[in-house]
Amino acid sequence: MSKNVAAKFSIIATLFILAGGIQAIAQEDQAPNSAQIVALDECDPATFNAALGPDFCHNVALGFSTTLNDLFAKAAAGTPDPGWDFEPDEVSIKKGATLTVVDQGGEPHTFTEVAHFGGGFIPPLNAGEETVPECSGGFSNVAVARTRLLQGSQLQITGLSKGEHLFECCIHPWMRVKVRVR
Q1: Average pLDDT over residues 19-37
Q2: Is the preceding peptide bond at 54 cis, omega within 30 degrees of 0?
Q3: DSSP SS3 for 113
Q4: Largest Cα–Cα distance of the chain, in whole Å?
Q5: Burial class of residue 124 in the structure, from the number of CB atoms within 10 Å of its CB (0-12 exposed, 13-18 middle, 19+ buried)
Q6: In sequence order, which ranges of the chain are alpha helices (DSSP H)?
Q7: How far apart are CA 110 and CA 168, in angstroms?
Q8: Sequence-separated contacts (24+) of 32-35 with Cβ below 8 Å
Q9: Less CB within 10 Å around the terminal CB: N or C of the chain?
Q10: How many Å apart are CA 32 and CA 47, to the nearest integer?
Q11: What gap in Å lies between CA 105 and CA 61, rounded to an integer?
Q12: pLDDT tens digits for 34-87?
């Protein structure tokens, strides 16, 4: 191969490498400056309110609901109710972005950052998982109480460092979200 051909290949290879780096930077810049996560559930007002007090559950699922007994039975069987969920399950944002979590379900939740996913502070809902330290103590733990979401409320999270952050509901621990900060 002549020196001219080798030099051309070298230049082309360098351009491809630079283009890949530029594309990676562009993808990082495409991470949003804000994101919204929605907490959902399908509590049955009759059974939840009878056990937990009037107006505890405000079902907004229009005819779809899970009784309190079914919620506990499904969790005990290791198949938690998929109607209790954070949407989306994963999100990517830029460093400095605002993450807004909105409770559009019928009952309270938490959005608590944890080191590792695990159980919450209501052992029968943990599907055999141990309570994670961040959820210990329930609402008597001020750190958990600060992450509480009441029906129709929202929580804004700012200042997340670059990397992966894990959040879960300390009441319904199968409600989980991974947040990647770029």
Answers
A1: 63
A2: no
A3: strand
A4: 86
A5: exposed
A6: 3-29, 45-52, 68-76, 142-145
A7: 7
A8: 32/92, 32/93, 32/94, 32/97, 33/93, 33/94, 33/96, 33/97, 33/98, 34/93, 34/97, 34/98, 34/99, 34/100, 35/91, 35/92, 35/93, 35/97, 35/98, 35/99, 35/100, 35/179
A9: N
A10: 40
A11: 8
A12: 899 999 999 999 999 999 999 899 876 677 899 999 999 999 999 999 999 999
CA distance linking residue 37 with residue 72, whole number of Å = 24
Q: Are 39 and 111 in contact (CB under 8 A)?
A: yes
Evaluate if residue 19 carries a pLDDT over 70. no
Would you tell me how many other CB atoms lie within 10 Å of the CB of residue 172?
26
Label residue 138 exposed, middle or buried (CB < 10 Å: 0-12, 13-18, 19+). middle
C-alpha–C-alpha distance, residues 95 and 50, integer Å: 44
The set of residues, in sequence order, having a beta carbon less than 8 Å from that of 178 and lying 6+ positions away, is 89, 90, 91, 164, 165, 166
Residue-averaged pLDDT of the chain:
87
- HSE, CB side, 13 Å, CA atoms: give it for residue 85: 9
**Can you read off the two tokens belonging to residue 49?**
């309110």
Element of type H or E holding 37:
strand 34-40
Q: What is the mean predicted confidence (pLDDT) over 132-146? A: 97
Residues in the chain: 182
